[in-house]
Amino acid sequence: MKIKDNIADEFSEFSKNYTHDMIGCVPHYLKLMSCFTEALPKGFRPESILDLGCGNGNATSKLLEVFPDAKYTLLDASQEMLNLCQQQFKGSKVEYVTSYFQDYDFKADDYDLIVAGFSLHHCDSEEKKSLFKKINRSLKKGGVFSCADLMISKNSPEHPKLLENWKTFVNSNFPNGEKWKWLLEHYNEFDKPDNFKDQIEWLKESGFIAIEITTRKDYWMHLQAVKD
């Protein structure tokens, strides 16, 4: 399996076995995805939800179980991923947008909840800073931003150990080594994770309050923040 020229094509190819591959390639994937509903503030009932980098809809699927009447906007750069979502969510109030994050028109005070499941690591540090400001602006007062991802910089002294443990995990699920070889090439080409402490500071600077890591498994984390 060879990586593609851009992230949209890469995930169009990855869409064929997306959930199976994510479970086998991302440590604690199912636990972290469950945080999108389980970690929300008590009594919080969003009416409008944006799923940033929705993939095949795993986060939205969780949310729909709890908030079936909410209006959803699913954004992804891969049309193939959105096609999978359209097949899965027929009959629900869902709008589909084919776009990269930086090209999306974030309307002010538009959403109660914005989620990002293993998608923001494709943005570099400056893109994340800009995106956090756009997310804050686009949330209604008291709205929630919820993100699950790998949160460690490639420059961190802990990063080599993270890669070592990650390789062991992936090879335990895909023993021939080909999946890890492809994943590492993808990671080196497309992924730009940042340390969670830096991201917390950027969220504070963007106007968020009540910022917390609700679940941490090594550097695989779920982070949640509230708009002031």
3D architecture notes:
- A 7-stranded mixed sheet has the order 3-2-1-4-5-7-6, with helices on both faces.
- It is an alpha/beta fold and 228 residues long.
- The relative contact order is 0.17.
- Helix 6 crosses helix 9.
- It has helices spanning 7-14, 18-25, 29-38, 58-66, 79-88, 125-138, 159-173, 178-190, 196-205, and strands at 48-52, 71-76, 94-98, 111-117, 139-150, 208-217, 220-227.
- The protein is 43% helix and 23% strand.
- The chain has a single domain, classed as Vaccinia Virus protein VP39 (Rossmann fold, 3-Layer(aba) Sandwich), CATH 3.40.50.
- It starts with 6 loop residues before the first helix and ends with a strand.
- Helix 5 links the parallel strand 2 and strand 3.
- The protein has 9 helices and 7 strands.
Summary of the model, kept short:
This protein has 228 residues and is α/β, with parallel strands linked by helices. The chain has nine helices and seven strands.
CATH class: Alpha Beta
For the biggest sheet, the summary is: 7 strands, mixed
- What CATH architecture label applies? 3-Layer(aba) Sandwich
Look up the CATH topology.
Answer: Rossmann fold
Rg, Å, rounded: 17 Å
The count of β-strands is 7
Number of domains: 1
Share of helix, binned: 40-55%
**Are there runs of 5+ residues with pLDDT below 50, and where?**
none
Order the strands across the largest sheet as they lie in space: 3-2-1-4-5-7-6
- How many helical elements? 9
Shape assignment: globular
Give the overall pLDDT as a whole number: 93
How would you spell out the order of helices and strands? Answer: HHHEHEHEEHEHHHEE
Fraction in beta strands: 15-25%
